[in-house]
């Protein structure tokens, strides 16, 4: 029996990726799509300015777009994916939760809320147990799970691998693709022959979300990881794929070879969208590169490379596809975990 | 009386910048240009594939290109600028020094040699006194002065300003323009919609040259600065202008405001190519940007911005024009200092 | 005595170019700047998101932005430049004309109106005489003059030169820079690693405006040139500078050499913003190129190249800076002509 | 029984595409790869700097690269694909033909030779009969077939469709991707924020090859099509996918709708690499776009759009993937035709 799913905010850039990834999904069946009032009532083909470079699945193209409200979602839908703008999500998600829906959300609101699991299935699946606390405190029948920001999720799997040596401090610089800002987020006049050394709110997300993801669930809440994280975020003229330079200090010395071994040992989990190996580590220092490597593992594998010693620790580079592993794919994988763990 | 100067390796990308910058220079008069054997004997117009977006000065266009050998340089030339490939420079520069020429060189060979001054006139002009030791040891009548690598020179003025608080450790990530690799150094297939997380030798240059530049001349040699430096270097699809993210720890706490004040207090020196203010500090966190800010101070001013506290220190961004402040302009400014200090 | 001028719509991309070009203009003095209601009352520095890569002139930065209404413009302003969006211009320009202002407008509305001169001073200055008819018909004290679209103005000077051989038919393909669509007109997701074979309304503008520009004023109106023009317009990932491929048939055979001679013979006019030579013709078939050649003649010279015979005529390429010669500089030059001819 | 095939010049950009396309080919089995002397004896993984964004098939990676000489090719290889540089191909291809090999070549030499078929299987399969004449005249046991240049092949299927109305004259402007020049053919300094209005030899190829492709085989040779073709070729900052603007005049009037219908009626042929529909015609004038549409039909379908009337005929745009339909895929498809028609 397939799980019937819906997408809240289905016409935007991440919404389109959801549709692309759900096409031929082994266990999920797309049953409903919602968007803003202006789009409601149109067919999806009319409502969405389709930008993904595969074609709209025919059946989705003919779906009627619903309003983003619980009343517009069929009762037999079991799981909702949200790619709403965070301002809208903040207003609208609670109504779905009260109505009993399980929501796997990519929106940035509430990621650091104490009773909201922020999860990457390969890293901290146990954080889903926060849902019990969430239901107790909020009186919801549904459940809200978030995935981290695209820049955070790119580095956290590598940090998780290094944490066996006791992570103490992390400095990270990002080279982020324009798709991370949505279809119209970065104008061509801003970015051609240029780079922008600031992305509003992004640095703080990396600094806080990473400590929650690597934190411990102690039965009542998440005890944040104690490492210091400092991030500098840059926008560059790349379409997809965030590349990051990490400088890490660990309590116990880790050689580049040991660090690479720890990364390579990070395995995927038994869910349809998880790659077999979580992190591919390159020996060639010129890799990973966004255009060459963002597609590894259908966009769900993390790439790393350039592992070298510094006086105080290690430096290395990592990369992930920001709208697949860093957005729609991340929510989808959380949805698969919610089903596997019996929350749906 | 103008100083008569020559350019060794005048047809390449940096050589063309030398010609552009020497046009209308107040005290230097271009008397000779040299290039490889294949170009010798041609007019400059024929020999150079001119790529700079101003036109070749008419008088230079008609100059006959000489061989890169002391015998081909007129006797009344007082000062030579070198933009030879480092492999060629290693072979050829000594011959010019033995022949008594003063050479201000942008080539990367010998930058870390113990008796070769590596200078930025606004930062460590006193290092020129190494020339006495150089002459003693090598038996040269001439003098060899180097400027640092373009990625190093972008951050060192900001580090020099912060050193009043006692620099202890620096992590730096670079977003470097394609022009840094020379005209044919980066193919379009490599870099469009992409970024490359490695530039051969660049990280080591930043890690060592910066410690020499901020070191002390103790009468016999340069005592390297004790700070730790770790660099990650990236190539991005930008034409000119290197942008760098710096994380710095200092012995004494420095607030972002104090750091900005120290940077703003860095003044230029009384030489034609030095800007009035060495570092422009932006309040707007979205600046500096390569395309918008590389031209400040005719390409000779450093820009900084994004100053923020981290748990252990500061983070900020800096930017310079890599083929002006970071190459031809750097050598030219060293040449001006050599004249002002009486070495020419 | 300087002519006091104002800019309607001064905060946009073309408005910023006006300010840049008016800085140090020999005869014009910027007296007032207007923008939308949202900006009125702010200083120009606050109201404009400054994007041009020179700095805002200090005196302009501190000007108070006025509303775009005749009542907000000082009485001693003699000449207004308009870079309003065409929808706004359609509503607002008549009020200024009724109030007696002379307006040199870059906005696309009314360019083909029978009593509105569409002029390029080097090509059809006599069309200004339409102003008499305009005043008669509309009862205006002021005068409205338009410059053509940026894609039209790039090719028309070359067509004017070829018309001595009797132009019969023109096919033109354009490679247009993103700045032609305004600062936010083309998103980075649309254009990186891409090209778009359509620009709304552009093809028709080229097909009609060029025939008006090369038409004859017969005392009562403009007799459109009889040539056929077919245009295909493309957007490419270039910042500034429109490049165009032209295929032209003439009644009388013209060899490439004769065509080049005719183009080279096109001279500028005796106005401050007109270049000495109107068209620079390259022998090198790889030129003109947008980045290399858009700055020729301070952005006011047309470049041409690649002149070759075809079975039926000629093919060649031409290029102009779309936001200088193709927009702000075009209006400015028309303003200079209006002053020289005594209309101001 | 699979057909055993080899690739001459397997390490270059087109060679890599051959390997990618041959992976999982239904009837071809890659048996041998050759390259220059410098690469011979190495494994393919060592010899090729792999640039395609899928991974090297494991079995190919471990193949030993042979010299490009008949003696180095196993006897049981039936069909060779050539992506040699044309200068090398001119020297080397005859040796393979004398040795009896059938060669489907992408190299540009000999495309216009009178006894060499230049074929697109969906357009002019009958031209293969020239092989009889070729064998007679040259005394070869093998056979040499060429596919056209990437810029030619992009437009010819659309011209073939229009030829039912009697093609008389064609003007075409191209916006060509950098991959058409090979991996190192266009430097990033040349093309970022730029366009180049000339590609050496390309215009002539379009003007001659298209007339041969649409010509008639009269039993002794190809009678070139009588239409006039004039081409202007531009390089733009796009990775893959050539976009072309065509202006066409036909003897009989064709409306845009009739032209679209003729294009849509062009079907593929019954060969593994031929798409079901040869030309996809868009109604949306903003399409086709290189990044969005180059992948249609696995890179083998032609896209068209923007069909409009002009005074003398039609204008429209077309697009194809230049290294698949325009190079490796074109040779592969010719190979499939050679097998189907019994030449192998």
3D structure, described in words:
Chain A has 344 residues and is α/β, with parallel strands linked by helices. Chain A folds into two domains: 3-149 and 327-340, NAD(P)-binding Rossmann-like Domain (Rossmann fold); 150-321, Dihydrodipicolinate Reductase, domain 2 (2-Layer Sandwich), CATH 3.30.360.10. Chain A is 29% helix and 22% strand. Chain A is built from eleven helices and 14 strands. The longest helix of chain A has 17 residues, at 324-340. Chain A is globular, with a radius of gyration of 19 Å. Chains A, B, C, D: One of its GO terms (biological process) is methionine biosynthetic process.
Series of H and E elements of chain A:
EHEHHEEHEHEHEHHEEEEHEHEEH
Give the count of helical stretches of chain A.
11
CATH architecture identity of the largest domain in chain A: 2-Layer Sandwich
Q: Strand portion of chain A, in percent?
A: 15-25%
State the CATH class of the largest domain in chain A.
Alpha Beta
By CATH, the superfamily of the largest domain in chain A comes out as Dihydrodipicolinate Reductase, domain 2
Q: Work out the largest interface and the residue count of each chain.
A: A-B, 37 and 37 residues
Mean residue pLDDT of chain A: 96
- Domain count of chain A: 2
| Class per helix and strand makeup of chain A | alpha/beta
Strand sequence of the main sheet of chain A, in spatial order? 3-2-1-4-5-6
C-alpha-based Rg of chain A, rounded:
19 Å
The oligomeric status of these chains comes to homotetramer
Low-confidence spans of chain A = none
Name the overall outline of chain A: globular
Distance between the termini of chain A: 13 Å
* CATH fold-level name of the largest domain in chain A: Dihydrodipicolinate Reductase, domain 2
Largest sheet of chain A: 6 strands, parallel
**Helicity level of chain A, as a percent range?**
25-40%
Family (chains A, B, C, D): Belongs to the aspartate-semialdehyde dehydrogenase family.
GO molecular function, one term (chains A, B, C, D): protein dimerization activity
Protein name (chains A, B, C, D): Aspartate-semialdehyde dehydrogenase
Organism (chains A, B, C, D): Halobellus salinus
């Amino acid at each position: 029996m397939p799980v019937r799913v819906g997408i809240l905010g289905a016409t935007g850039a991440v919404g389109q990726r959801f549709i692309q990834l759900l096409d031929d999904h082994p266990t999920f069946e797309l049953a409903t799509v919602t968007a803003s009032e202006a789009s409601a009532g149109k067919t999806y083909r009319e409502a969405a300015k389709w930008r993904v470079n595969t074609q709209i699945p025919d059946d989705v193209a003919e779906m009627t777009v619903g309003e983003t409200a619980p009343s517009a979602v069929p009762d037999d839908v079991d799981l909702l994916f949200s790619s709403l703008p965070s301002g809208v999500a903040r207003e609208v998600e609670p109504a779905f939760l009260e109505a009993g829906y399980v929501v796997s959300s990519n929106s940035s609101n509430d990621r650091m809320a104490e009773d909201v699991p922020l999860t990457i299935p390969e890293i901290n699946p146990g954080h889903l147990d926060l849902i019990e606390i969430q239901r107790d405190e909020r009186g919801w029948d549904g459940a809200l799970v978030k995935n981290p920001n695209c820049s955070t999720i790119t580095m956290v799997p590598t940090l998780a691998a290094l944490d066996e040596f006791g992570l103490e401090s992390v400095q990270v610089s990002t080279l982020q693709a324009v798709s991370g800002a949505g279809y119209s987020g970065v104008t061509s006049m801003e970015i051609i022959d240029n780079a922008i050394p600031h992305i509003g709110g992004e640095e703080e997300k990396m600094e806080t979300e990473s400590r929650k993801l690597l934190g411990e669930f102690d039965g009542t809440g998440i005890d944040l990881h104690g490492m210091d994280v400092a991030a500098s975020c840059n926008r560059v003229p790349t379409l997809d794929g965030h590349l990051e330079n990490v400088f890490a200090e660990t309590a116990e010395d880790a050689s580049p070879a040991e660090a690479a071994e720890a990364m390579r040992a990070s395995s995927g989990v038994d869910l349809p969208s998880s790659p077999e190996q979580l992190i591919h580590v390159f020996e060639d220092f010129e890799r990973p590169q966004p255009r060459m490597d963002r597609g590894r593992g259908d966009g769900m594998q993390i790439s790393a490379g350039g592992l070298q010693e510094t006086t105080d620790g290690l430096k290395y580079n990592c990369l992930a596809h920001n709208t697949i592993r860093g957005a729609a794919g991340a929510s989808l994988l959380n949805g698969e975990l919610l089903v596997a763990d019996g929350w749906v």
